[in-house]
Amino acid sequence: MIDDTSLETVRTMRPEPGATMAHVEFTRDGARALVSTWQEEGAVIVCDAKILEEITHLPMRKSSGKYNE
Hints:
Strand content: 35-45%
Number of strands: 4
Strand order of the largest sheet: 1-2-3-4
Largest sheet: 4 strands, antiparallel
Radius of gyration: 12 Å
Order of helices and strands: EEEE
Shape: globular
């Protein structure tokens, strides 16, 4: 995660050891970050965008797509 004011890296997300993160999207209001792990037993991980903590873990097979529309 990059601070939009200082452009410094404030946190590196590693939701699952060895997982490939396909992409991160934010909800329309910016309150949640949606992290997609792309693997056979993957997931979409929903994080609070302010405190950068996981809210829920949604298991999915090779999750990728457009989630914030």
